């Protein structure tokens, strides 16, 4: 059994009980302890800044040329908080229940309640940092709604909320760097985790400008490296985003959980051609005022403005009247794919649906819509050459967020002592589906309010542990392993580029482990991935040397993706139910809705790496619900 370390007491008192009994490190001893934080997005920057301010010595790593270029900048629509400013019935418990239900009852009660509980103080914290949240005429902070809820709890800064929150965390990080408490290592990528006596004690990082492998020791290691949605190649993530840090940790003994729970965002720009390397996210906040529809007639080629109301199918409003266009992301994405596959898709590749603002503009006026979404409309026009104030947007589902990640306990520490995972790098808060605007929330809460209590609780027991340095044999062994992989890539004289293999993985997963899955397709995918891995090892061609070489960087990431993709398929194959974003075609109602199996699958699937060519081992963490009743998830 794996221990989630959930504190005693009622749901409302668990976090307070933890904080009241957590072990502390006195200020003089904090200066003796070193912490590595990999990743400088919201989770990484906030964690590094908070711990540095306490007095710990921090080494911060990111592969970008600046810590402010972390992918948190891409989050657009907002951040949730149960402040009930609209007096519309919101509360901590309501937010907790919405998140549990949104994740289809596949997340821990204690973690989710803590997320909701800490949400209110985050907004005050961000305002104090200068984050320019939208305000009403009287000066009060404004709210809007996101999918899966019936209240307004999403705080936003137009369509740039992630960027503005990251600037706040970035400033806090730089303040500590200037004070000498944070050492920033930009253009460095973690390539190996170093374990000593079973504990995380450092990393091997590759300097991406020189190619040199560097050894870095620490008393604890934090991975805040984001999700692995780029495994699908075409996704909303930047090209550099990857899952290598958590995968390398997995191969050293950290379990991976909920690996196949992948969210497809329903509000993205559709693929326009085969040469694309990514897809563009359009904020879910647009669904507050935009109405989603397709023509009633399959293959309708008319301009959308010439199609009358009675010949339009507002399918979300039809199928889910209680939530309509604000149905959760997994449900909205599957509904869009169903209409597209049935021949009702629109656009040049017939792979999109319409997002229409004409009614909202008529009712609210164009200036009001511009004040809320102006930058998103401008971005859409720059990309597509279409004025969305005059003509509906084209949108389509795209791979976006990974609910799965490293298994962590309540602290959130992985199965490797001293190795913590924050934000999207862990699995803990979202279950089988994430509600919109909870991503920024989890990243900030993990970094600002949870890790500053839980990491010192662990470090208090490390004060008497003998100090290690990078001369330890474990560092030499890890460095040797990393160098051997680099040499293998450079010595491989095949004929295909890294992108060739990455596209193969993405297409295979999208077709067989994407918005829907089946036993037959998943087994086919596993067989194909095993063949693809052999081809990758023999047919890869890397040009250049081991110094400044982006192809070499990508090769390591794609090698990890092939193995990760296979584990995703094993996870999806083992879970014989439909829940959240995991939709098994064999388990659905006659109306095409998910059929969950609480009797046999009410647990977190945590997978252990058993070695090259070996099947992964499944460990089950039972999910116990004391405060909510397991119910059929309905938004009708």
TrEMBL record:
GO cellular component: plasma membrane
Active-site residues annotated for this sequence: 329
Statement: the UniProt record of this protein carries the keyword Cell inner membrane: no
Alphabetical UniProt keywords: Cell membrane, Electron transport, FAD, Flavoprotein, Membrane, Oxidoreductase, Transport
Membrane topology type: Peripheral membrane protein
Pfam (any one): FAD_binding_2
Gene3D superfamilies: FAD/NAD(P)-binding domain, Fumarate reductase/succinate dehydrogenase flavoprotein-like, C-terminal domain, Succinate dehydrogenase/fumarate reductase flavoprotein, catalytic domain
InterPro entries in UniProt: FAD-dep_OxRdtase_2_FAD-bd (IPR003953), FAD/NAD-bd_sf (IPR036188), Fum_R/Succ_DH_flav-like_C_sf (IPR037099), Fum_Rdtase/Succ_DH_flav-like_C (IPR015939), SdhA/FrdA/AprA (IPR030664), Succ_DH/Fum_Rdt_flav_su (IPR011280), Succ_DH/fumarate_Rdtase_cat_sf (IPR027477)
Domain of life: Bacteria
Residue ranges of every copy of the Fumarate reductase/succinate dehydrogenase flavoprotein-like C-terminal domain listed in the record: 502-635
Family label: Belongs to the FAD-dependent oxidoreductase 2 family. FRD/SDH subfamily.
Name recorded for this polypeptide: succinate dehydrogenase
Source lineage: Bacteria, Pseudomonadati, Bacteroidota, Flavobacteriia, Flavobacteriales
